[in-house]
Amino acid sequence: MMKFFSQSSEKGDLVLIALFAVAVFTMPIWLAPFGANYPDLMQRFAIFGIFATGFNILFGLTGYLSFGHAAFLGVGSYTAVWTFKLLGMNPIPAVIASVVVAGVFALVIGFISLRRSGIYFSILTLAFAQMCYNLAYSVLTPITNGETGLRVLHEDPRIFDDKTVETTGPLISQIFGYQMQGMTGFYFCGILLVITVFIAMRIFRSPFGMMLKAVKTNQNRLNYTGVNTRPYTLAAFVISGMYAGLAGALMCIIDPLAGAERMQWTASGEVVLMTILGGVGTIIGPIIGAGLIKYFENIFSAFNDQTLANIYSFLPDGLSEVLVSVTSLFVGEGWHLSLGILFMLIVIFLPGGVTEGLSRIGKLIARRTGKAQKNENEGGRRSSPMPGE
Amino acid sequence: MDAILLQVLNGLDKGAAYALIALGLTLIFGTLGVVNFAHGALFMLGAFCAVTINRALTLEKVALSETQTTAWGTPLEIRTPYAQEWFGDFGLTIIDYSVPLSILIAIPFMLLVGIAMERGLVRFFYKRPHAEQILVTFGLAIVLQEIVKAIYGANPIQQDAPSIVQGAADIGALFGDPGALVYPWWRIVYLIFSGVVIAAVFAFLQFTTFGMVVRAGMADRETVGLLGINIDRRFTIVFGIAAVVAGLAGVMYTPILPPDYHIGMDFLVLSFVVVVVGGMGSLPGAVAAGFLLGVLQSFASMTAVRDILSKVGIVGLDQIIIYLVAIVVLLVRPRGLMGRKGVME
Fold it and tell me: Which of A124, A340, A347 comes nearest B132 by C-beta?
């Protein structure tokens, strides 16, 4: 898989994106054996895939580690709900408005934060995100509805909605009569995922993307050669902010509710985690990472002592009780513990994430079959997926 | 005037906690060049040291009363802490002083934790990019936090200050105006305590041979190493000291704010801002910025100030003042207030 993704040609890209689209849209089929083929989870795969892909455009290409990306997600969510409230439940204006507003936010925050690099940049973005979070909780309550969360009400203006066929049930986003729920909602997110991944792919291959990679490799040298890197990094920051805004909008299209906790810095940490887990600087990596985390979150947090007891029921009583009490630390409520351990293991032993692991295995197999020579050449050409400063 | 003084005091004790954590962060950063996102978790571990000691001291012996019965007719349970059982009134005094006594246990414990962390994890990351250092320590923080949550649950656990320093001090009375300025005793204790800890760390670095070597190592690690000094081992101990400072800050903070498992994360974000404002790698900068931001925050939340600000259309400044100051400082003085040239450029 990875070998295809590392080759670059325009035709190849189209083939790849077609393959990717097929993979996304057949998710209900091939995820069935894993028990993950229900719409709610697949929607989350797609949404967080978009979020992580956008984050990767910044972190993977330029090496700037933003710890405040959740702010854009939150801004996107609030914008989406406000367009629902004012313009009606059509998802298209919500998506457009969210992307634009998140982009403007990213422009302002990026303009200031990108004056510094390294750890200072991380802290500046963190500070901005915490500011947004605190404001959303306190002063901006008229806009964000504070702790309760912002939701669409029946008495909202919604000027483009057809008020004659008013129902009393919960308001659901819809387009051409398709309600953005269940499988329809998933396909909507899936289409956007494919589009955004295609855009990300084009960015990775473009001269602009090359410039960003150069920033990551050695920004000083670029500066000495007379290149002003700021516009490039700022553009990358804005693009990734727009991706986050889109993800936020999609969350609200699926479920028209926006809360401030989406902006908390732990949420920013989560997207960093997804990107690292999947593989920084690769196109497919962040999507794999997002999928894995959301999948295991879903599976692990559903476990409780009873289900564990059933799993271990074939063992003798005493042993199974011990195993249940040990395992229950890592699942259910304690799922974050396994997440933290997994995260540490990945950073320590496999900084390139799952994709690096896969390509290592691939190389190993290739070497076994006697094609070592050819593969080494290829490995030398490919840029290292290690995140740099 | 009284109100202003009160806000200064209020800000100082919060600032003291920021300053202690930021001091440890800066020590680690200045010596080892590592950005430690798990420092908040060390603060939390310290706080839970106090909780553990308190639990251990108040372990109770349950005896059934022979004469008294409860309303349900069962014999009344008489619960006496073992400490009281064994030492009588002295035992009760020990329980009363459990928070300050925890310091005695917390110092060796945190030192061990710090050294284990450095030897076991952080030292493998010296040569790796800062992003990876941030990520691995962030992961460690999650793990520590979740372990504590698994043991102690998710709810905050109230800890009491010794009864002698419970209640509030009438500071106004000192200036001949009783009741004008009332301030909790324990916060005064915390303020003095943090001052002592900060002074001790500075004295240690300034007046001992060990400290001198460490300062030399901070300036030029390679040369110190070439002189035949095992600088790595000393830096390991410095990491331990930084952990102790954070842990002590946590122990003593428990009566002010009941600790829960994410108390460290809440403080960490602010402490990072403090470190950056103070200047990465500058110890006096970290301390000064800690107190400064603490006081600023408490001023911004003053009712009078808020009224004035809301008249000119600014609301909610108290929520964001620290971050705002950080942004302004970083843009105006990119190295922070007292940052050194060439550190983390």
Answer: A347
